[in-house]
Amino acid sequence: MKSRSTFVRQAANLRQYKQELQQVLAHTVCVWLNRLFGLEPLQFDSLVTE
Question: Distance between CA atoms of 49 and 43, rounded to whole angstroms?
């Protein structure tokens, strides 16, 4: 059953990479939106409140 444990470990790694990629993409989109609206790049609160 070594192949099964390898598969489970690889699936967990892929899930972790997917979550990290989602975080990076979300951050990038928020920075882009702030620049589009003329705000400071890291003022994410302004995107929600305005």
Answer: 11
